[in-house]
Amino acid sequence: MLPRPGEDSYRFALRSAFFLAVGGHLAWILGERGEKGDTDLRAAPGASRAGGSPGGSRGRTRRKSRPGNGRGVAAGLSSRCEDFEDDPRALGARGHRRSVSRGSYQLQAQMNRAVYEDRPPGSVVPTSAAEASRAMAGDTSLSENYAFAGMYHVFDQHVDEAVPRVRFANDDRHRLACCSLDGSISLCQLVPAPPAVLRVLRGHTRGVSDFAWSLSNDILVSTSLDATMRIWASEDGRCIREIPDPDGAELLCCTFQPVNNNLTVVGNAKHNVHVMNISTGKKVKGGSSKLTGRVLALSFDAPGRLLWAGDDRGSIFSFLFDMATGKLTKAKRLVVHEGSPVTSISARSWVSREARDPSLLINACLNKLLLYRVVDNEGTLQLKRSFPIEQSSHPVRSIFCPLMSFRQGACVVTGSEDMCVHFFDVERAAKAAVNKLQGHSAPVLDVSFNCDESLLASSDASGMVIVWRREQK
Fold first, then answer.
1. Which of 294, 289, 212, 283 has its CA nearest to residue 252?
2. How far apart are the first and last CA of the chain?
3. d(CA 227, CA 308)
4. ∠ CA 129-133-138, rounded to 5°
């Protein structure tokens, strides 16, 4: 291939590299279809990128083509790719080689397989071979990724009463809500500056224990110690419906069914879990089950087929959820620690090109944050790792970081009774601490990231909500 009239060397190199890269890929495809007995151009272990011998010599293997098998074409294209590497015109403006040989495809495949096979048992995050996924989050370390520039804003409208729950809206960077034991829920907007409380939702006669955003963020559901759940319109703050608990008990937690947001699961102080239809205001037939204690935490898996519920006696129950009817079927029970309240359950199926390991993150008043592996379709749990925090009595919660699937390592964030926000890399058995944020003056009860992890919100037992801004890279 020759330069076009008036074409500079850089543009010529780019054009040539494109055609030769396509040719190299075609050569690889055609070569795979050839007869097994034919001489192959695959790079042997230790060979150079362009097919050289391990000793460093630059020899090339040539083969005769056989009619109809396409391998002569493969050899020709592969040889041309190798010859091009020796041509100085193959170098870009900064000296980077831009050619792609068949050998390099083979060698990269071998490297990918080797890295995958060398992963330690139980590894659940993408390896270094997942270049495309890693590129989405950058090549910085977890410590660098979770470095924070300081406080972005402090909300104090609920001061003097604990804020047990704070949540960013789904797939949203700047909408935030928090509930308080003063009986109200605040909807906040962080942009445009200055951050402000848009509206306060009032109606519950006692403290609000939990709330959740619907998938489309158009409604919120809240549970309260006044034994009712309420459905709110997020746009104008209207209370659309008030639904009493079927048992007349304090409602302590709630979660939307992730696939069908018409259904909400609530847990109460009389040890019961109920599936509620928020359109009719009635519980679903067959959608109730009893635990061993007060129900403090609920979480679905992503497909919505498994539900976990934790109680104040230290047990976690898994339920099979019937998507057609809303019926709950009790499947498994795990005693985390007898008598230790399970205050938070967060479920995540880590999906990447190289790892899928459904997991639960648990807080259970053991001065530890617990990570469990989900080992089967019935929600059986196996302890994978624990991390030291301070939690002996307060309802502390934790979360998985939203962008965890795209990095080397995976980060979780938790509140703590030491008035700090803690970050841990769940893949490190030792020295797992990634960062610690200090600024609260009371136990930190809940944490929430926005969708791109640029902001983190944390709430505490004194009613303060702090929004932290991550350092820009």
1. 294
2. 41
3. 22
4. 100
The contacts of residue 139 (CB under 8 Å, 6+ apart) are: none
**pLDDT at site 276:** 99
What is the dihedral angle through the alpha carbons of 433, 436, 441, 445, rounded to the nearest 10 degrees? -60
Compute the 3-state secondary structure of the chain and give helix, strand, coil in percent, each to the nearest 5: 15, 35, 50
Helical segments of 3-130, H only: 9-32, 71-86, 102-117
Distance from the Cα of residue 290 to its chain's centroid: 30
Would you state the torsion angle of the CA atoms of residues 255, 258, 263, 269, taken in this order, to the nearest 10 degrees? -20
Residue spans of the chain under pLDDT 70: 1-140, 351-356, 404-409, 473
**pLDDT value, residue 120:** 46
Of 178, 261, 167, give the one whose Cα is nearest residue 215. Answer: 261
User: How far, in Å, CA of 29 to CA of 33, rounded?
Assistant: 7
Q: Are residues 268 and 276 in contact, defined by beta-carbon separation less than 8 angstroms?
A: no
Q: Of 406, 393, 318, 457, which is closest to residue 128 (Cα–Cα)?
A: 406
The pLDDT value recorded for residue 24 is: 52
